[in-house]
């Protein structure tokens, strides 16, 4: 699937996000530049499909209601905002004593922002620069940020921070683009005439986009005598210093308990206050926020805009103030923390924070959150929630140890496993039309809001990987493009574990029907996101196929190709789960050298991961049904509990009803958001 290109087409449209569009006159050509026809580029979907109608590939930059400073700058630079800046480094130095803060996509806040705090301590004017390189982002291929829901959220996070800075300090953020981040940062530093740049360490693994950018920027600045000071602002711990002691068993390598124990050797640094001042310096050239293209929307052949971002804005207050308020309410007496231990499994998120996107973009400091949780007694009230931030650090530690884990199995001998490549089944899963209401509601919520609760994510992942036997990378890619909190480390750790190639194979399963009855016992979540089922009694909301014909008729529900809701994509989940497990067992048979005498998978411990076992083969957690080649994973028939541990024995084979899958996908859905999604998928050529 393809993302709409960010190149300028024949017209520019300014959208107020309410649906009305004002089309301005054609932009004048800039000297030395040609008008460029828009081309579809990568993002928000898989890589294989193409937009079939060339009339539908132009883009529309959205100018939301943000700070007046950004608005005036953009109006003055309409042409320049959409054309690539000069990539040559101009060695121009401007006078005055000042320093520069290089803002990153993960440190967009004022509280506990070490780079801002220490820059303010110099008592000099502070240049605030957000640097971006389209070329480096596009080099990420299917994992680039531009064109995703997360990029849309990021745009508004930058705009919100800029508005706060203007209001409090009279300063503002400058956006700089370049052929590389190093070129953009260096040119901005030279233009500003600074001798020192402050920023945050990236937590990405060495050799990938994160640390290579840190290193290249540092090298470029050092070459001209400019100092770069980097601070840890994103995680609780310095993950580069974490070493797991495998000589004492505290749990399997790469799982939470031994990692958490290793973290205890470090102290979580106390959060810093907001900077007291951020004096405004002389102005710098500003490429403009919309030049990033993060809010570009596709335009239909008839000239109207397919504005998938509007619904995201309806569901999120994208600001640092909102993040702090959400945390305060959650931790306050009577807030979500007190209900979390019992209510965290609920699909409607009434007992969870929905704070993940704010952490993802650094709008909320993890260290600040840690100490606020500690003061509120979070550890005593919910040990599960207390460990959430440690899980986050674990994901980044895993990715630093296994830098290819976003698209290569950590258990390398699982490469080559047999997967189901049915595009129709994948599309039904992506668009929330599997016939399992909990999963369908979750996938529709994901498309509409960019978010869904953790347990619903798990139910969706199990249906995709364990029951449909579709490669976990397909789910990871879809989440990468549709989650506003899309985080490659967390996303890849989850999907590796769901696909059973990660360090901590999920040792449980879920039945999408019975799990729904546990997570949404009254059916409120289903009624919200699957309105075609809204009139069904709660007892049938998660299993409409169990409802008598008269009940379906009275509720206005008809199942099947020409009905209001599809048949289940699979009927016998137990045999489907056995088939996917059999594919893993067959792959393991081809990799005997990577299995020990007890049937556990082996991996090579990466350099820097352990106290004394680096470079050695070591066992990792392996589900009993894989260690015992004849076992059969248990999945209930919809009448038991939503989760169950793997146990039991037996054989079976999956009965795919491909004709039903093909036919049912075309059913009509009552949700307007679903219709937008369907149209978007068709435009991709999916």
Automatic annotation (TrEMBL):
Binds 1 FAD per subunit. FAD binds at residues 340, 385, 485-487. The record marks 419, 472, 495 as: Electron transfer via tryptophanyl radical. Gene3D superfamilies: 1.25.40.80, DNA Cyclobutane Dipyrimidine Photolyase, subunit A, domain 3, HUPs. Residues 98-236 form the Photolyase/cryptochrome alpha/beta domain. Pfam families: DNA_photolyase (PF00875), FAD_binding_7 (PF03441). Residues 30-52, 622-672 are annotated as: Disordered. GO terms for biological process: circadian regulation of gene expression; entrainment of circadian clock by photoperiod; nucleobase-containing compound metabolic process; response to stress. SUPFAM superfamilies: Cryptochrome/photolyase FAD-binding domain, Cryptochrome/photolyase, N-terminal domain. Residues 641-652 have a biased composition (Basic residues). Keywords: Chromophore, FAD, Flavoprotein. One of its GO terms (cellular component) is cytoplasm. Transmembrane segments: none annotated. One of its GO terms (molecular function) is DNA binding. Residues 654-667 have a biased composition (Basic and acidic residues). Its cofactor is FAD. Belongs to the DNA photolyase class-1 family. This is Cryptochrome-1. The lineage of its organism: Eukaryota, Sar, Alveolata, Dinophyceae, Suessiales.
